[in-house]
Amino acid sequence: MDLYAIISMMIPRLLRQTIIDRLEQFPAVALLGTRQVGKTTLAHKIGQDRKCLYLDLESPADRNKLQYAQQYLTLHEDELIILDEVQRMPELFQTLRGLIDQGIFNKRETGRFLLLGSASLDLLKQSGESLAGRIAYEELFPLNIVEVNSSEQERLWLRGGFPKSFLAESDRKSEFWRENFIRTYLERDIPQLGPRIPAETLRRFWTMLSHSQSGLLNAAQLARSLSVDGKTIARYLDLMVDLLLVRRLTPFHTNAKKRMVRSPKVYVRDSGLVHALLGIESLEQLYGHPIMGASWEGFVIENLLSVLPWSVKAFFYRTFAGAEIDLVLELSEGNLWAIEIKRGLSAKPEKGFYYACEDLEPSRAFVVYSGDERYPIADGVEAIGLRALVSLLSTLN
Fold it and tell me: Crossing angle for the helix pair 15-23 and 39-47, nearest 10 degrees?
């Protein structure tokens, strides 16, 4: 195990207990997340406390072991079987269903399989068709603000939450790691999934999304810039969303008779990748860059969503009259939280935020800012630091 893996094992991941709880309830758990986000490290840490078998389905040797998968896996029916990059063998899901059903018959009903995957939609479709009712899904995000020391918020924002990027010896080495991460995705990982997209074209698309971080999707403008049609832009975006590299935040619509913005907002999910794609290597460069506010908004949103259960739905709200909320969380039917995001020590929202709160009547409203103090700023609206709000939201899980 390399030094990075050893250090990463020491970082407490909030999702660990959730995965353990799901394994105690379901025969199979799917842990989704981008490459290098720490899925394998977390799986090994969970496996330390029980008898387990780990198979990497990108390894020819491990794939060969599954040539007769049912017979081989039956030999390990009393172990937790961890299957890494499971989307590489979609034909395996039918076998897993049979083994799970046989295990239920033999009173071995939970904690059979931990499936790790890097492409969300493919894995959900493949496993959902075969393992409906037998599998739970969780997503491992990059490191968030409560998983690192409170003094490391700015470094986490600059470098992003991929453990090897965050833990690098210097900002330059971190940026070099992220550049190689981007190149590997473009030149190796995406072609392995099947799409025939030139790496340079997709990099330009990814970079354009970084330039328009937190902005409304303008597919026509992107299409003109890349000399492709709108359907091609939609395909590129779907791919990046599927790979958990880009977030498409949809607008929240009400029954009120208001002219609503209908285009989604788009974010490159990891702030470190935003900065690498834009050539931002240091905090000094970031503080003086026009993308700073938009980068901070995306960073805050990913931190907040990283601790929420799958049942919580996330939106933004904007009308043509100027009412706007950066993030609307629908915890349950009719239970909305409104969150405005500010970079800096001033927690004063714009008037549009109050107009939007009048429209939606959220049960709670917050303004996230760069300070640590929590205090009321208006009737029903609180100023709060990012770390405190992430901690508060984590209690909803």
Answer: 60
pTM exceeding 0.90:
yes
Structure tokens given for 393? 């939201």
Q: Which of 134, 136, 137, 156 is nearest to 145 (CA)?
A: 156
Q: How far, in Å, are 96, 132, 212 from residue 126 at the CA level?
A: 12, 10, 33
CA proximity to 110, closest of 31, 22, 17: 22
Q: pLDDT tens digits for 196-238?
A: 788 899 999 999 999 999 999 999 999 999 999 999 999 999 9
Evaluate whether 360 touches 317 at the Cβ level (below 8 Å).
yes
Which contiguous run of DSSP H or E holds residue 179? Answer: helix 171-184
Q: Which domains does the chain have, with CATH numbers?
A: 3-139 (3.40.50.300), 145-394 (no CATH)
Please state, rounded to an integer, the average pLDDT across all residues of the chain.
91
Query: Residue 380: beta bridge partners?
Result: none
Q: Please answer whether residues 278 and 289 qualify as being in contact, where contact means their C-beta atoms are separated by less than 8 angstroms.
A: yes
